[in-house]
Automatic annotation (TrEMBL):
It comes from Mangrovibacterium diazotrophicum. Residues 1-22 form the signal peptide. This is Purple acid phosphatase-like protein. SUPFAM superfamilies: BT0923-like (SSF160574), Metallo-dependent phosphatases (SSF56300), Purple acid phosphatase, N-terminal domain (SSF49363). The keyword Signal applies. It holds the Pfam family Pur_ac_phosph_N. GO terms for molecular function: acid phosphatase activity; metal ion binding. Gene3D superfamilies: 3.10.450.360, 3.60.21.10, Purple acid phosphatase-like, N-terminal. Keywords: Signal. InterPro entries: Calcineurin-like_PHP, Metallo-depent_PP-like, PAPs-like, PAPs_N, Purple_acid_Pase-like_N. Residues 45-146 form the Purple acid phosphatase N-terminal domain. Residues 160-349 form the Calcineurin-like phosphoesterase domain.
Length: 529
């Protein structure tokens, strides 16, 4: 019996040892490959997108894509009813068709027809069903609801940059958001929806990741810096233009600054049930937008004001500071009592409240007084950065909550005098929470509820974002290349399926790229310019 126990113990220990070895073996990530045919338009409607107009109680617009063969298209709309043949009461509207030739455009390489229809004269707080097509090739019937003329409670979603690994990883995040708030009335996208402005593949990923959500839940998108690139290879960055897909695939309110075509459908506002939502373009024409913003805020009958744009006033991540943008916009936000500011760009999470500057001057308190706008920076895609070491200390402001290496979606519910804010991970865990309560007089009250959430997440206590070298190989490289810093590591496979490490080293202007085998042997060394 004892002999059997010894054998069993040895076998058990061996299994544990083997499992430990296998757990230490690096995993090579195999990124998906997308063939050109996968993203090519056809006669069937795809990339169906719904947007609200300036008055979402009575209008909504729909855009979609087909191949060049479809030159005439239509939308049909009817009040949705439980009876399946509600379409007997439908109305058909001819679409506006726009041909987009991106065959020579950098990273685009496509030609397609985009179609759009605006539904006018809708009834408030009503459920409608619509479909789009050419009379023969139709989409499914898709439902949406118009806004109410009363201040009924409602929810919406807010997400930061999708940008990278869009279909691979953003899909799970946006679908989690829809699960958490299936009755969300719209989605705020705070810029960098894609990484490469004109990339047909990335826009295809974005639409497939959101799937039917894009056609049911109206989008309120803002343009990030990655929505701008030169049209053609060899052009300088000062020749950047807005993504050629942006205006054909979104039908956004045209109530922004007048006589500036570049801001059309990137700077705008919409009023939804006692909330004014203002979208700004933080990339261009800052001064012109500031003047327009003052006008829009000075004539604002709504109880709540939410502003969204891409570049944060208070940056979350290392090496970032949008000082000019902050100095221009924050005094305006303070003067007009903006309640909530929703931003992206930094590939991390931060949330805090900063008091108005003029309040500080008159009372002698600092910016931690906590009476001003609530600022949020969030990320929804798979690209992650490191947080600033001292948070917002350089601006004498407090970050109340922060995160690294975590995909997040925000559900925001407006219920008359209270905004309920909840930030959730891609796995549905509550990460941050607060209620913002509005009073007839005086500043809003913020009720911080983050104690209900999971523990703070940072790079050091989560699964490593960056590829790493085994310690023995790292030490060996450091000994062979003293005074060099390891800048980047990628774990790859060669054609035979053998693992190797792609390592970038730097010492001042001197750079090397190494190909190192699994056992630490240097297979290739190249000096880089």
């Amino acid at each position: 019996m004892a002999r059997h126990l010894i054998k069993f113990s040895l076998f058990f220990c061996l299994c544990i040892f083997q499992n430990a070895l296998s757990a230490q073996k690096p995993v090579v990530y195999h990124a998906p490959k997308y063939e050109p045919a996968w993203m090519a338009p056809t006669v069937h409607p795809d990339r169906i997108m719904i947007n609200y107009g300036a008055d979402p109680t009575t209008t909504a617009s729909v855009c979609w894509r087909t191949n060049e063969q479809i030159t005439e298209a239509f939308a049909e709309i009817a009040k949705a009813t439980p009876a399946p043949k509600f379409w007997r009461n439908s109305q058909q509207i001819k679409a506006r068709t726009e041909h987009i030739n991106g065959l020579e455009v950098k990273d685009a390489g496509f030609a397609a027809n985009y179609h759009s229809v605006t539904f006018d004269g809708l009834e408030p707080n009503s459920l409608y069903a619509y479909r789009v097509g050419d009379g023969e090739h139709w989409s499914e019937w898709i439902q949406f609801r118009t806004a109410s003329t009363t201040n009924d409670p409602f929810s919406f979603l807010y997400v930061g940059d999708a940008q990278n690994y869009i279909l691979e990883l953003w899909s799970r995040l946006i679908r989690q958001g829809f699960q958490q708030a299936p009755d969300a009335r719209f989605i705020i996208h705070a810029g960098d929806l894609v990484s490469t402005a004109h990339s047909e593949q990335q826009w295809e990923e974005w639409f497939r990741a959101g799937s039917f959500i894009h056609s049911m839940v109206p989008a309120i998108p803002v343009a990030g810096n990655h929505e701008y690139e030169p049209l053609y290879e060899g052009q300088d960055n000062d020749q950047e233009v807005l993504s050629i897909q942006w205006r054909p695939q979104f039908a956004l309110p045209e109530n922004g600054p007048t006589n500036i075509d570049e801001l059309k459908e990137t700077t705008y506002f919409t009023d939804f049930q006692d909330v004014r939502i203002i979208a700004l373009n933080s990339n261009i024409y800052h001064e012109e937008q500031a003047k327009w913003l003052k006008t829009i805020l000075s004539n604002n009958p709504n109880r709540w004001t939410i502003i969204t744009f891409h570049h944060p006033l208070y940056s979350a991540s290392q090496g970032r500071d949008n000082e000019e943008w902050r100095n221009l916009m924050k005094p305006i936000f303070d003067e007009y009592g903006v309640d909530l500011v929703l931003q992206g760009h930094d590939h991390s999470y931060a949330r805090g409240r900063v008091s108005p500057d003029e309040y500080n001057l008159t009372s002698g308190v600092n910016k931690r007084d906590q009476t001003g706008s609530v600022y949020v920076v969030s990320v929804s895609g798979g690209k992650m950065y490191k947080l600033r070491e001292n948070g917002w200390e350089n601006w004498e402001a407090d970050q109340e909550r922060a995160a690294e290496n975590t995909q997040l979606v925000q559900t925001i519910t407006v219920n008359k005098d209270t905004i309920h804010y909840r930030s959730l991970t891609a796995t549905g865990d509550l990460y941050d929470a607060f209620d913002l309560v509005k009073h007839k007089n005086g500043p809003n009250t913020l009720v911080d509820l983050q104690e209900q959430a999971i523990a703070a997440r940072y790079h050091h206590n989560t699964i490593s974002y960056d590829d790493k070298l085994p310690l023995d190989i790292k030490n060996d490289i450091s000994n062979k290349y003293p005074d060099f810093e390891i800048n980047k590591i990628d774990i790859r496979e060669n054609e035979e399926g053998n693992l190797f490490y792609d390592i970038r080293l730097q010492n001042g202007e001197l750079k090397f790229r190494l190909k190192v085998g699994e056992q630490g042997q240097v297979l290739e060394e190249k000096q880089q310019n």
